[in-house]
């Protein structure tokens, strides 16, 4: 499902995805995408963040209510780190800045679809997110720390900047080192 209020962007993504062998369903705003998603079945969603009347983060929340495991790649043409952070907190698989680099989109889609297959048990999860030893120094018992590990798995293979915040002594350096490794 490809969602953007810019028709030219949707047409370009549709053309590229078809060339790569995917079937893309276009939607031109969040509400249309919501109707299509609730009525259909999708493996991946690529959505713009800034849309009216329903923005991409609101759409992401609707999608994850129906299927919390579907990867949603968010994109925005605005240099707005707050929107990107909000999307990641809401459960976006990844965030891409516009104009989209086709190489980055291809890489992110490959990881997202592999992640989806791994969650369904159709692919070895270690092939998608890397071996467990990457997290040997992090103890992830609480739901909060499991969330941190999930975030590390999403951002570590990318080259996007990562802001790690928290109080002194909470393990920011450990998380940074893990992402880097």
Q: How many helices does DSSP assign? A: 8
Strand content: 5-15%
Q: What is the chain-wise order of helices and strands?
A: EHEHEHEHEHHHH
> Order of strands across the widest beta sheet?
2-1-3-4-5
Secondary-structure blueprint:
Elements: E1 2-3, H1 7-19, E2 26-27, H2 30-39, E3 45-48, H3 56-66, E4 72-76, H4 81-89, E5 94-97, H5 102-119, H6 125-129, H7 143-155, H8 172-180
Parallel strand pairs: 1-2, 1-3, 3-4, 4-5
Helix pairs in contact: 2-3
Please tell me about this protein's structure:
This protein is α/β, with parallel strands linked by helices and 181 residues long. The chain is built from 8 helices and 5 strands. The protein has helices spanning 7-19, 30-39, 56-66, 81-89, 102-119, 125-129, 143-155, 172-180; strands at 2-3, 26-27, 45-48, 72-76, 94-97. Strands 2-1-3-4-5 form a 5-stranded parallel beta sheet, sandwiched between helices. The chain is globular, with a radius of gyration of 17 Å. The model is unreliable at 128-134 (pLDDT under 50).
